[in-house]
Amino acid sequence: NAGVMQNPRHLVRRRGQEARLRCSPMKGHSHVYWYRQLPEEGLKFMVYLQKENIIDESGMPKERFSAEFPKEGPSILRIQQVVRGDSAAYFCASSPRDRTEKLFFGSGTQLSVL
Amino acid sequence: QKEVEQDPGPLSVPEGAIVSLNCTYSNSAFQYFMWYRQYSRKGPELLMYTYSSGNKEDGRFTAQVDKSSKYISLFIRDSQPSDSATYLCAMSALDQGAQKLVFGQGTRLTINP
Fold it and tell me: Residue A30 pLDDT > 90, yes or no?
């Protein structure tokens, strides 16, 4: 049973470009969470999605960031007009149901903004 | 003040030593307490999960929660070089679910052979 798959592992963008991060949850999991890990900081919640629905985006910056989890295909975290402060590791996690703290994390996408 | 405080270390101990990792928190609503282990360039992996106060043991690992002091600990007995990783505490309030997980900064642990 494959784990949570994230790609790319590393993404380099110049300021002003767009970054697209993809996440395929574990088989049978319909709940996806995105977390961001800044250098020397803990993981910070960004957004929680179910298929075709954003359940909670309270941790996501209001501008430039968006997320989706379509009926078919992976979940996408999209960052428009990236800035240096967006450089971080972005982790996706999935769970088989809601209201659970037992998350399964992917290996993350390291975003570097030049 | 951060909701969850964790000493970032680094912590370096010899193989076979008992390791104690700790977190303090300020939100008395937290009811679920977890420890994740994160190897370099990997995602966090759930290690221990406890609800409310008390101890939980799993092999060489013991998780301890003291809600009166708002203090949680992870003990590793007979530590091995393969235990070298960053350990993250995480917690959430009742009925909040995973979207409200609050993580500590992580403690980098090295076990020396």
Answer: no
